[in-house]
Amino acid sequence: MTTVLSLFGGWPGHTPSAISAWADELYAELGYEVERSSDIFTLDRDLTGFDLIVIGWNNALTTEDLTDAQEAALLRAVARGSGLAGWHGAGAAFRASLPYRMLLGGDFIEHPAGEAYPQPYDVRIINREHPVTAGVNDFKVASEQYYMHVNPNNTVLAETTFSGEHLPWIEGHTSPVAWVKNWGDGRVFYHSIGHTPADLDSPDVRRLTKQGLEWAKRS
């Protein structure tokens, strides 16, 4: 039985409880045993027993951050084989933690449309050979189009291109939407979709997420 820690909370604008409930459906379909927590102090314990840790946290506009001990517990667990997965707000969580940014593989910088929400954009699958993207088609999203800074050692699976409508100097710039990477014996999966549960309703987003969870879990 795959054991999962689902950590969700932080800024309420990202509806963490509703997003967590959406993910619960995937966990049930996959047959995972899930411990759910909205308490950041959950990370103070030994996490190495979990096969997968899912970060559903965003504190870009709140004050929670990781202590040195929480950083160490999270990095140690993944290095020893626990998987790490997250989407959307996980890319803006724990902004003061450089080790977390390195572990996740990227950092949210901006969604250029700002208050012009929702912003329609296209997502292209650029790596169709990876098991996470098997059967996933290119798809459209109407939400926050994330501009990301990412680690060069990520394996990018999907990307989006900015029009320049809101920030002319990024016209034609592509930014990763989904990637995977390794961290010691552990695997990491992230995609930037999911401002609201409706953003995740696309069958292709659902498939991408579900397969990402399966890939990232302890093998």
Automatic annotation (TrEMBL):
InterPro entries: Class_I_gatase-like (IPR029062), ThuA-like (IPR029010)
ThuA-like domain span: 9-216
One Pfam family in the UniProt entry: ThuA
Top-level taxon of the source organism: Bacteria
Protein name: ThuA domain-containing protein
Organism: Agromyces bracchium
